[in-house]
Write a structure and sequence with these properties.
- The chain has 181 residues and is α+β, with helices and mostly antiparallel strands.
- It is 35% helix and 20% strand.
- The protein is built from five helices and eight strands.
- It has helices at 4-24, 30-47, 79-87, 101-109, 123-129; strands at residues 54-60, 63-66, 69-73, 92-96, 135-137, 141-145, 152-155, 173-176.
- A hairpin with a 6-residue loop joins strand 6 and strand 7 (152-155).
- The longest helix has 21 residues, at 4-24.
- The radius of gyration is 16 Å and the shape is globular.
């Protein structure tokens, strides 16, 4: 089994290709379906381990994190990944155990939607309306612990909590996609 970081980079590569292809072809085009299947296979292998129930891609300014670990800069990702995060004002996107190809296709269908006001668009709400249960948007949050003073500085995604546990080493960001009750 691959490390989380390697699997995450492969997922991003495949997801980026799928996002690009959806702009060129229909969601049901064989090339789009193939790349979605490959992306889901990588996610499934990672999520079916006993270690992770979800894989959370989140942003800390320009730093891209997977489950709280730095995997690079958003600037190093394909243009389609960068635009996806920017266009839908994403702080995080979570893929949960049980993800099916139809759900990934449902996520990509948002690109074909005629959304009049992206500023007020809520991707997580859209996913819920489309019955996509294993992908969540803007639910991750992370905390930073400053090295010198050990002061907690909360940076929030869509579901940040003030009672979030503080974890990780100094200067580390800890991410979780745990939904708020």
């Amino acid at each position: 089994m691959q490390t989380l970081e390697i699997a995450a980079k492969e997922v991003l590569m495949h997801l980026g290709r799928a996002l690009s292809q959806v702009n060129l072809y229909s969601i049901n085009h064989p090339a789009v379906k193939k790349i979605i299947a490959e992306c889901c296979q990588i996610l499934s292998e990672s999520l079916n381990s006993d270690i992770f129930e979800e894989i959370v891609f989140s942003l800390d300014h320009d730093t891209l994190l997977v489950n709280g670990r730095r995997i690079g800069s958003i600037k190093d990702q394909s243009g389609s990944i960068r635009m996806f995060f920017l266009r839908y004002n994403l702080h995080s996107i979570s893929f949960l155990r049980g993800l099916e190809e139809e759900e990934m296709m449902g996520l990509l269908k948002v690109l074909k939607e005629n959304i009049k006001d992206l500023k007020d668009f809520n991707l997580d709400q859209y996913l819920g309306e489309k019955q996509i249960r294993h992908i969540r948007a803007n639910e991750a949050f992370y905390t930073k612990v400053e090295k010198e003073e050990d002061n907690v500085v909360e940076e929030t995604g869509g579901a940040a909590r003030t009672d979030a546990p503080v974890g990780g080493a100094p200067d580390a960001a800890a991410a979780t996609g745990s939904p708020i009750a």
